[in-house]
Amino acid sequence: MAAHPTGIPIQLEPLVTRVLAPNPSPYTYSGTQTHVVGTTDLAVIDPGPDDPVHLAALLATIAGRPVAAIVITHHHRDHSPASRPLAAATGAPIVGPVAFHVGDDGPRADAAFDADYAPDRVLAEGDTVAGDGWTLEAVATPGHTSNHLAYALCESGALFSGDHVMGWATSVVSPPDGDMGDYMASLDKLLARDDRIYYPGHGEAVETPRRLVRGMLGHRKQREGQILRLLGEGAQPLAAMTARMYVGLDPRLLGAAERSVLAHLYDLRRRGLASEEGPAWRSAT
């Protein structure tokens, strides 16, 4: 868990301050981390859940300074709902990825999509938001969600990685919107960059980002290899396969693990390596 309490602004570098929301869970770790960028005018990245205590902490951190933009990485409801009361309090526009609505049949109550998310400006790859002494550039990183964006702070080499890369755990990739092929491609994309540090939506800063991304790619490829070996034994029900792959996992996380296994299976099916057979899966080779 984080080494600082919720609601207390922690300055991470001259242009970046972090405020932790009081929404810890097995899926959010110590809570959602809101990042405030700038000194004279500000951007607020992922204001978090619509929680009056967290909103008060953000307004105290803002301390009357103008807010140029409220910036969203993706519209899961542990990241974007507070954008609306914060916009009402500050007059700032909400900017971020395109809004969409999808049925979320995954196990995460905290990860259901924020149905009321409606950005004033839609951002895509390469778009920028700027203020006095800072520029945020959108980096498209689909996978955890199809519209996920990270943001590069051009002046310092930092990347706000949202839920795409976190130091404490791998991201949940839950179909139908989460896509394992996209997730792996986005990791490859980040590996080719030279960002100095990552500030994720949950967990501590990642000070060796390329090393972590290489490890995450290796981990997912190992999971894929496990799946292919199990399918080689014959038809496999999803739940049974997940239980064999995640021995000793916190039972509260098994549902999310199953969604990630399913995302791998969909990716393998698309590549002609797996097929669905009733309630089970088998090798297609």
Structure description:
This is MBL fold metallo-hydrolase. The protein is 28% helix and 22% strand. The protein is of the alpha/beta class. The protein has two domains: 10-218, 4-Layer Sandwich (Metallo-beta-lactamase, Chain A); 234-283. It has a seven-stranded mixed β-sheet with strand order 1-2-3-4-5-6-7, with helices on one face.
Compact description:
The chain is an alpha/beta fold and 285 residues long. Helix content is 28%, strand content 22%.
Q: Average pLDDT across residues?
A: 93
The total of beta strands comes to: 15
Query: Quick one: CATH class of the largest domain?
Result: Alpha Beta
What structural class should be given to the helix and strand makeup?
alpha/beta
Largest sheet: 7 strands, mixed
**Rg, alpha carbons:** 19 Å
Protein name: MBL fold metallo-hydrolase
Pfam family, one: Lactamase_B
